[in-house]
Request: fold
Amino acid sequence: MDLVKLKTLATKKLRKGMPLLQKEDLLKDADFPQAWVTFSDERGNFVGQGYLGQQNKGIGWLVSLQEEQLNQAFFEGLFNKAKARRQAFFNNQETTAFRLFNGEGDGLGGLTIDWYDNYAVFSWYNEVILQKKAEIVAAFQAVYPEVLGASEKIRYKSQLPESQWLYGTQPNEPLIVKENAVNYAVYLNEGLMTGIFLDQKEVRNQLVEGLAVGQEVLNLFSYTGAFSVAAAMGGAASTTSVDLAKRSRQKTEEQFAVNQLSLENQKIIVMDVFEYYKYAKRKNLSYDLIILDPPSFARNKKKTFSVAKNYGELVTDALSILKENGRIIASTNAANLSLERFQGLVEAAFEAAGVNYQKEQVFRLPVDFQTLASFSEGNYLKVLFYKIKK
Ligand code: SAH
Reply:
């Protein structure tokens, strides 16, 4: 294995439990290998093992601080530990989809694995972790003999297909999974996304369990309408789902259908969110509960949206179509923005509009998305619930 020397500061960082490497951590940052490597300090003393593989977060991961073999038995150890941590999920018959293995939070950055009712979805985040695919998949199969089949997603720039079947049988699709007794239709081998973002389960649970009762709900950037379905199941008076992707209409109708919900009080609108704001103002539409969950970065014909630059506008416009004593749920998955900065952006928009606001709840990643206390960027999800008085 290649030996890669780290700067003193980086050595300290890794020993403190921060597993992600950046280019500037390396003593020689030109021509470093894309490979599994041993890390040492400037003088060549052992620090740990891991790999250098370019991905959007950084250039590699520390995997172990021990001098041990990173082989199938090592990966089985990680999967067993991750499985034991999630016993409460396996025991809960009302939730049949959740994350089984969350990258660095479970000890191996660059790989996540999700459980969809006895099927698995692997996501690989760089090409170097794939060098150990055979050992990793064999270890997974040894720990999870009950998994009937798995698909895999390639989440970095590559010639490989984005999604393909990895092993075992394929389910009849849509596969219907449950979360808090609500059904969701998922497709395990269609592009990168399955139809549900499992990291939002706690937010959906709030909607199912009372927050949405009797409310007129507006779900912006709605994708397959999972928040709308949760709200409707939780007794919402109506839901409106807005997404510019054409697929979202049929996908959202399907999510309502698999819960036997009629579409009578559910509007599905294929439109740019900023256009919808104009439309809603023109038509004097207003809502009790507005959910904002944009992608962290998006580009369309007219503009680029970034959380840091444009979240404030989203909130300002939402306020203008919010009813008296309404609620705003502001969500982002932008890892490069701290909770404090995100909260600052949202509240600056409230203050500029001169409304009174009260922060009611904050959600970060749920426990199946295991994170490291020593690596706060890993806990990328931030969801703020606000009650607004105009
Ligand atoms: N809230 C969803 C996930 C949102 S994913 C959920 O919980 O399931 C982001 C979605 O935003 C994508 O479906 C994408 O099509 C949509 N999108 C991106 N830019 C948009 C825009 N300007 N207007 C409307 N939708 C947009």
Remarks:
- The two ends are 63 Å apart (CA to CA).
- Residues 339-353 form the longest helix (15 residues).
- The CA atoms of residues 308 and 341 lie 9 Å apart.
- Residues 197, 200, 221-224, 226-227, 242-245, 248, 272-273, 293, 295, 298, 300, 305 surround S-adenosyl-L-homocysteine (CB under 6 Å).
